[in-house]
Automatic annotation (TrEMBL):
Its cofactor is Mn(2+). Signal peptide: none annotated. One of its GO terms (molecular function) is manganese ion binding. This is 2-isopropylmalate synthase. InterPro entries: 2-IPM_HCS-like, 2-isopropylmalate_synth_dimer, AIPM/Hcit_synth_CS, Aldolase_TIM, LeuA/HCS_post-cat, LeuA_allosteric_dom_sf, LeuA_bact_synth, PYR_CT.
Length: 536
């Protein structure tokens, strides 16, 4: 076997990857992917299976014509027509063309699918390899379902294939059946038992039916395989193929384990390639996918975020920038801590004191409890509210509204004033109106709502809505109140209360107990909300 420290990367995204249901790509899309694979630095692009359709033939031909750099490969069964089609499609690649012939060797495939004896299988394989060699110098042979093939037969057919002119012997775990230890053992068995293996490159091709495709590929490389086949994002037949980006990054990250094996991959192109393949194939990458998933370098837990801010390597074993990601992301969620919150606020331009951040942190957690992510706009609303906070006469403790078609909208509101808790109810034209009436009864103010507006300040169904009210308290000027909440009724209640509180500030007085005819109330039931003060 040709042995070196260089692992040949064989990409089959455009052939086995495209076998994934729904992943078919138009020739133009395949060409774009091939171009990017060349930039990524793969050694071989399996561009298609030319005999299966005019489109595949044309696509392999176009890639062979236009893509410089990697070898271009076409797949063929051990049938003259297949080999002829592959040879013709690859003609523009000249010496860079490779034909990949395959034939199943396991008992189950021989007896039930091909209905052929061992001898016939060997004869067909040998004839096909010789035929392929009449078109190209570089011929790969795959004994399909090799991991379920009897060892003695596998040794024999591999030896015969090399003797017939195969330059690469690929050992496929076609149905993702093997395990790392077993596969490594099989590779060692071939290395020891195939006398002419030195004339060929030993390759592996793993499927992910048991989620072991990458582990099996790496085990085989450790056992001496020097070509690895796989696809970008691991797309492929059934559960998919080994994800090339994972194999490459494992080799690179764990040089200590893999003895400094090299590939020709330019890791900085990995994310770009993954995105392109996802777009072209229509197969989205799951968020938690290793190396290329959205979350692969996104740290959410406060303890992790704190660690990463102090030293990235505490929670990152790869440099995301080196793979083509932007800066490490610290998405803010309910799991985040003060360190990440402060860092984001500084990035947004807020220079809040420790005390202010402390005051804001509780509200931040409340938003996190309600929403998957706390977005920048949420933070801006929080921070601005903190900066412009006014002294509140009344603090909202609780509200509830009830409304129905043809019903009478009613609201109960509980406010805290100093150490007093006051509760009252109101009815109105709508639930917000009813809640405002309840506030009027508690506060002793009687505001007339002159303007009311609501605006979404963040995106999505769980967006924060910001309510602005302009209220006439009969004092010859309008007072503005603002509040934001993920619940628009709550934002309205708080905005109105904000205006009521401002009316006390502007008058410089506060209601007495006599002015408030409301009863004492119970416990606090806080909701996510942000009072935002506004200039009257
Ligand atoms: C493990 C892998 O991923 S192998 C690659 C799989 N990829 C594909 O199948 C690509 C898409 N396939 C196709 O378009 C079609 O299946 C074609 C064009 C290849 C063949 O279509 P058809 O001629 O209608 O045959 P069909 O698909 O029904 O059956 C496959 C035939 O190929 C035979 N065959 C399978 N593998 C091989 C092989 N390596 N060498 C020779 N013959 C083979 C089967 O025995 C069967 O022959 P039979 O009809 O005499 O029983
Ligand atoms: C053609 C061969 C290599 C294949 O795709 C498989 O066995 O999975």
């Amino acid at each position: 076997m040709k042995s070196s420290n260089r692992v040949i990367v064989f990409d089959t995204t455009l052939r086995d990857g495209e076998q994934c249901p729904g992943a078919s790509m138009a020739p133009r899309q395949k060409l774009e992917v091939a171009r990017q694979l060349a930039r990524l630095g793969v050694d071989v692009i399996e561009a298609g299976f030319p005999v299966i359709s005019q489109g595949d033939f044309a696509s392999v031909r176009e890639i062979a014509e236009q893509i410089d750099g990697p070898k271009i490969c076409g797949l063929a069964r051990c049938l003259p027509g297949d080999i002829q089609a592959a040879g013709e499609a690859l003609r523009p690649a000249g010496k860079r063309g490779r034909i990949h012939v395959f034939l199943a060797t396991s008992t189950i495939h021989r007896e039930h699918k091909l209905v052929k004896s061992r001898e016939e299988i060997i004869r067909l394989a040998v004839e096909a390899i010789r035929h392929a060699r009449s078109f190209v110098e570089d011929v790969e042979f795959s004994p399909e379902d090799a991991t379920r093939t009897e060892p003695d037969f596998l040794l024999r057919i591999v030896t015969e294939a090399i003797a017939a002119g195969a330059t690469t012997i690929n050992i496929p775990d076609t149905v993702g059946y093997t395990t790392p230890g077993e596969f490594a053992e099989r590779i060692r068995m071939l290395r020891e038992g195939v006398s002419n293996l030195g004339e060929a490159v030993l390759s592996v091709h793993c499927h992910d039916d048991l989620g072991l495709a990458v582990a099996n590929s790496l085990a085989a490389i450790q056992a001496g395989a020097r070509q690895v086949e796989g696809t970008i994002n691991g797309i492929g037949e059934r559960a998919g193929n080994a994800a090339l980006e994972e194999i490459v990054m494992a080799l690179q990250t764990r040089r200590d384990v893999f003895g400094g094996l090299e590939t020709g991959i330019h890791a900085k192109e990995i994310v770009r390639t993954s995105r392109l393949v996802a777009r072209m194939s229509g197969l989205h990458v799951q968020r938690n996918k290793a190396v290329v998933g959205e979350n692969a370098f996104a740290h959410s837990a406060g303890i992790h975020q704190d660690g990463v801010l102090k030293k990235r390597e505490t929670y990152e074993i790869m440099d995301p920038m080196a793979i083509g990601w932007g800066e490490t992301e610290l998405p803010l969620t309910k799991h985040s801590g003060r360190a990440a919150l402060e860092k984001r606020l500084i990035a947004l331009g807020f220079g809040l004191s420790r005390e202010e951040i402390e005051a804001l942190f509780g509200k931040f957690k409340e938003i996190g409890d309600k929403k998957k992510f706390v977005y920048d706009d949420d933070l801006v609303a929080l921070a601005e509210g903190q900066i412009t906070r006014i002294q509140e006469t009344f603090e909202l403790v609780y509200w509830t509204v009830s409304t129905a078609f043809h019903g009478v909208p009613t609201a109960a509101v509980r406010l805290r004033k100093g150490d007093e808790v006051l509760t009252d109810a109101g009815v109105g034209g709508g639930s917000v109106d009813a809640a405002m009436k309840a506030i009027d009864r508690i506060s002793g103010r009687h505001g007339h709502l002159v303007e009311y507006s609501v605006e979404a300040v963040t995106e999505g169904k769980d967006a924060i809505g910001e309510v602005t009210v302009r209220v006439d308290f009969g004092e010859g000027r309008l007072l503005t109140g603002k509040a934001a909440s993920t619940d628009v009724v709550e934002a309205s209640v708080r905005a109105y209360l904000n205006a009521v509180n401002r009316s006390f500030l502007s008058r410089g007085d506060a209601p007495t107990k006599a002015q408030t005819a409301s009863s004492r109330g119970g416990d606090v039931d806080p909701k996510t909300s942000v009072p935002i003060a506004a200039a009257p």
